[in-house]
Amino acid sequence: MSRLLAIRQQQNLTQEELCERSGISVRTIQRIEAGTQPQGFTLKALAKALGISESELVGKQETPTIADTKWMKLINFSALPFMFLPPLNIAAPLLIMFLKKEFNPVTKRLVTIQILWTLLAAVLCLMVVILNDWFAIRSKYMVLIPVVWLAVNIFIILRNAVSIAQNQTLRVDLSFSLI
Q1: Does the pTM exceed 0.85?
Q2: How confident is the model at residue 136, as a pLDDT?
Q3: Residues of 17-36 as b/e, b for ≥16 C-beta within 10 angstroms?
Q4: pLDDT at 21
Q5: Is 109 inside a domain boundary?
Q6: Each residue of 73-87: b (16+ CB within 10 Å) or e?
Q7: Which of 57, 75, 97 is the last residue of a domain?
Q8: Is residue 173, in this structure, part of any structural domain at all?
Q9: Domains identified in the chain, total number
Q10: Which domain covers residue 132, as residue numbers?
Q11: Is residue 76 part of a domain?
């Protein structure tokens, strides 16, 4: 649950009432309640309308519930069976995320990690082709590149699973999300 939603409900306000008080559109309020971080004028106007400080509005979100943690684990693990088919290691977590409407920052970053790993796989495959064809570098160790890539991806998934189980955060984390 977003901070704005929790504070708005605590003050018994509808989105329309908050819109009138703050001058921020209902659609913007909906986006913020869905997980977008308010910034600049929007943040100031909402904080003033709610009678709270800006830091309270963007403060740390509530800890995830057990049900949220369960879905975070499932989204994380859903990439494992499809690691050998890189586009599917994105599709499976995304499908679960959309079907279960789990759009919290942690699940978004989990999918972002898999997107980046898929892009890295494409770059590594191109590197192997370029080294083999263009530069005529032939080595029995070229096979290690995809093997190491898969091993690191498995490690990241398992390490994040342990971290999600222990404290509902990611151990291997990104400071951004592509979703």
Answers
A1: no
A2: 74
A3: ebbebbebeeebbebbbeee
A4: 92
A5: yes
A6: ebbbbbbeebbeebe
A7: 57
A8: no
A9: 2
A10: 66-167
A11: yes
Q: Per the structure block, which two tokens stand in for 19?
A: 């819109």
Low-confidence ranges of the chain (pLDDT < 70): 1, 59-67
Predicted confidence at residue 65, as pLDDT, reads 66
**Residue at token pair 């830091």:** 55
Per-residue DSSP letter, 170: -
The CA distance from 65 to 102, in Å, is 12
What distance in Å separates the CA atoms of residue 18 and residue 168, rounded to the nearest whole number?
31
Residue 61 and residue 9: Cα distance in Å, rounded? Answer: 15
> Are residues 42 and 102 part of one domain?
no
Which tokens belong to 171?
């151990």
Q: How far apart are CA 88 and CA 91, in angstroms?
A: 5
Domain boundary (35, 57, 79) is at 57
Per DSSP, the residues of 30-88 read HHHHHTPPP-HHHHHHHHHHHTS-HHHHSSPPPPPPHHHHHHHHHHHHTTGGGTTSTTH
Rounded CA gap, 156 and 154, in Å? 5
CATH number, domain of 46, equals 1.10.260.40
Structure tokens at 80: 């494992």
